[in-house]
Amino acid sequence: MNGMRVLIVESRFYEEITDGLVKGAVKELSAQGVGYKRLIVPGILEIPAAVRYAVRAMELRATDERYAGYIALGCAIRGETDHYEHVCRLAMDGLQTLTLDFSLAVGNGILTVHNRPQAMERCLPERRNFGGQAARACLRMIDIKRELSLIPK
């Protein structure tokens, strides 16, 4: 997988949680020899837009950057209002729509949890390592695209 690059789009709303997710994802990518670029967005709701911007920049040849896949990292913690439900649904639906409409290889590491302890359990590489899991999912989807001849082998 040398020479391949992945775009990590990370929401910094809960920085400590995102740091854990990024650490796990980067460790997995580095172990596989995959390059990456990190792009920071304010919250999970902005992740799909940032992925679309990256795809559009490649379509327009406005950049020399080429990404084989995308990793979405961030967290939403349930609060006292229904805002959580809307943000989670829109972020997840946005990523799924992009994945299907543009045949993207996406690893979804957006945590949607009830409380901070749940988030910490899932974000840390030495625990459930959802960042690493998202990176592995992205890399597997890239492999599937290769197997189906959507990208060169």
Automatic annotation (TrEMBL):
GO CC terms of this entry: cytosol; riboflavin synthase complex
Gene3D superfamilies xref list: Lumazine/riboflavin synthase
GO MF entry, a single one: 6,7-dimethyl-8-ribityllumazine synthase activity
Pathway(s) served: Cofactor biosynthesis; riboflavin biosynthesis; riboflavin from 2-hydroxy-3-oxobutyl phosphate and 5-amino-6-(D-ribitylamino)uracil: step 1/2
EC number: 2.5.1.78
InterPro entries the record matches: LS, LS/RS, LS/RS_sf
PANTHER family tied to this protein: 6,7-DIMETHYL-8-RIBITYLLUMAZINE SYNTHASE, 6,7-DIMETHYL-8-RIBITYLLUMAZINE SYNTHASE DMRL SYNTHASE LUMAZINE SYNTHASE
Protein name from the UniProt record: 6,7-dimethyl-8-ribityllumazine synthase
